[in-house]
Amino acid sequence: MELGYIISGLVVGFMVGLTGVGGGSLMTPILIFGFGLSPIRAVGTDLLFAALTKIGGVWSHWHHHTIQWHVVGFLALGSIPSTIITLQVLKNFQHHDQQLTNLINLILGFALILTALALPLKDWLKKAIKANHTSKLVQVVHRLQQNKNFIVITTITIGWILGFIVTMSSIGAGALGSVALLYLYPNLYMNQLAATDIAHAVPLTIIAGIGHWHLGTVDVHVLGNLLLGSLPGVYLGSRFSINLPDRVIQITLSTLLMLIGIKFIL
């Protein structure tokens, strides 16, 4: 059983380092369906697993100067207060958390499928802005992307939403965050988006994970075995992301989101 946890941690850690996605989106279903943990214990354990795993990814991406720290700050302005409030709600309704988690997982399944379908539109949107300045839709999108106030407010709002979803389900810090950043900051490279998303996910998942620890929903034994595999996995994944073309990372991310979304719905 311990070897299974270690291998699972290695695979998920690699995907986190490569795309910024995969912590909760992959590990929570693995813990529930593969190892039989209850949903609430899977969520709590995975939050601390994601936090400690992504610390290694932050170090590697920081070394390559791919983290956009101002974006991380805007996201944290929304996500940290949201996480604290959500933890208090969980504490007050702790005996009903399974129903809430199931509902969020279902909604997130549809959201992941939609984001997977939306990812390939990135290149089309860039080309449309350059080739068709008369299109009202393209002009609106372009103006919004150039409006600094809109970008800041939207980034903070996205952080708030992520704080709620991640605390309740341990899912979304990488998947939804990376897609939102993709459209808000179209001039960033995919490896910069992944690095920035990972850097924001660390304080978010640490706070949420500590909150779940106090609720008694973290399995320390499972967490330790997962980390044995994930720490080298996330380092290897982040190294590969530096060398892979943007299109390869984009296709990988889109496919991953689609598969995860279908899994949650089914």
Automatic annotation (TrEMBL):
Pfam families: TauE. GO terms for cellular component: plasma membrane. InterPro entries: TM_pro_TauE-like, TSUP/Inactive_protease-like. The chain crosses the membrane at residues 6-35, 42-62, 68-90, 102-121, 150-183, 195-214, 248-265. It comes from the Bacteria. It is found in: Cell membrane; Membrane. It is a multi-pass membrane protein. Keywords: Cell membrane, Membrane, Transmembrane, Transmembrane helix. Belongs to the 4-toluene sulfonate uptake permease (TSUP) (TC 2.A.102) family. This is Probable membrane transporter protein. It comes from Candidatus Nitrosacidococcus tergens.
